[in-house]
Design a protein that fits this description.
The protein is an all-alpha fold. The protein contains 14 helices and no strands. The protein has helices at 2-23, 36-58, 62-68, 71-96, 100-122, 128-148, 153-172, 176-201, 210-218, 220-235, 240-246, 249-261, 268-332, 334-342. Helix 2 packs across helix 4. The longest helix has 65 residues, at 268-332. The N and C termini lie far apart (62 Å). The relative contact order is 0.16.
């Protein structure tokens, strides 16, 4: 019963995390007239403040000692901070300049780009269905490039930056909250310096458009950290395959907002490109579920075989003990008789 409740809670946490990420395009326009770079700087500064407070309450500081003692991990954290800065900044700019649909495409193709990076960087081998999905995804990009008259660069930069960020995080291997704290600590001083510079120029939006706008800018830290906390809670309660399916909620919500709420154009060539991407993701998901099911069946069969073998061994040992020396020889059978015949 406890496991079932944990799984249900994990599913709700996961849905909550991806729903918040999917609905965040509704938040960034509220921060105008602040520009995308100022919003990004506030996000970095206030995220560190919120995450630092959370770690203080949870008393989770032990990871810092290990991180400071590892120049390699520090370098990777710095790289992760740089990559996610590009991702965050471009996403905020995309939403506030009317490119929500194109931004959603970036997160739709992100799993395909992640697979491609796995092949190129980690030398991973792909199954035929995965190759097919990547090929269809590449065709989708070509269709969209023809439709746009240029490559969908917003989608590609968002997809590649987030895939690279995931790869670097895999190498660092520290918790989500801790990783965000380390990354925003790297971002903090440049972000704060930029905000101070804007203040000196008299163009800082913070504090210039009422208390409500100021509070919204400060809330960028909460908007960044709360979904991550929910995601962390989901990750320890539900299978990875479930999280893999839930990840499509965010770009789906973003796409629907772009089309239905922001009324962005969807000409036929864009529908064709998105349809190809959705086909690729369907193949990828089907293959992942099938592989996961086969792996579970293989593990269950191996476990059952091991249990049967252990039971058989225990039964043979018990029979030998009960029968005594003569009985032991009888249980041993031909193998037990061989040494006697050899004499």
């Amino acid at each position: 019963m406890k496991t079932e409740n944990e799984g249900r809670a994990g599913l709700l946490y996961g849905i909550g995390a991806y729903a918040m990420w999917g609905l965040v395009p509704l938040f960034w326009p509220l921060l105008k007239p602040a520009g995308a770079i100022e919003i990004l700087a506030h996000r970095m500064v206030w995220s560190l403040a919120f995450v630092g407070l959370a770690l203080l309450v949870l008393r989770r500081w032990g990871w810092m000692r290990e991180l400071v003692r590892s120049p390699r991990k520090l370098g990777l954290i710095t790289l992760a901070a740089a990559v996610i800065t590009v991702n965050w900044g471009l996403y905020i700019w995309s939403v506030n300049t009317g490119h929500v649909v194109e931004a959603s495409l970036g997160y739709f193709i992100n799993p395909l780009v992640t697979i491609a990076l796995g092949v190129l960087v980690l030398q991973e081998r792909l199954r035929p269905a995965q190759w097919a999905a990547v090929g269809i995804g590449f065709a989708a990009v070509l269709v969209l490039a023809v439709g746009y008259g240029q490559p969908p660069w917003i989608s590609l930069v968002l997809a590649f930056s987030f895939a690279l960020y995931g790869l670097v995080k895999k190498k660092v291997n520290i918790g989500g909250l801790e990783s965000l704290a380390a990354e925003t600590a790297v971002q903090f001083l440049p972000a704060l310096a930029y905000l101070v510079w804007l203040g000196g120029q008299g163009t800082l939006a913070f504090g210039s458009h009422g208390a409500g706008h100021t509070a919204l800018l400060a809330a960028t830290g909460l908007v960044t950290a709360i979904p991550l906390v929910c995601f962390g809670a989901a990750a320890i309660r539900v299978p990875l395959s479930t999280l893999g399916l839930l990840q499509y909620l965010a770009p789906t919500f973003q796409f629907l907002l772009g089309v239905l709420y922001f009324h962005e154009a969807m000409p036929p060539e864009r529908w064709a490109g998105f349809s190809l991407v959705w086909l690729a993701l369907t193949i990828l998901t089907w293959d992942a579920l099938r592989t996961n099911r086969r792996n579970r069946a293989a593990i269950a069969a191996a476990t059952a075989a091991g249990a049967a073998e252990a039971a058989g061994t225990a039964g043979a040992a018990g029979a030998a003990e009960t029968a005594g020396p003569a009985g032991a020889a009888e249980v041993a059978g031909p193998a037990g008789a061989a040494p006697t015949a050899g004499r």
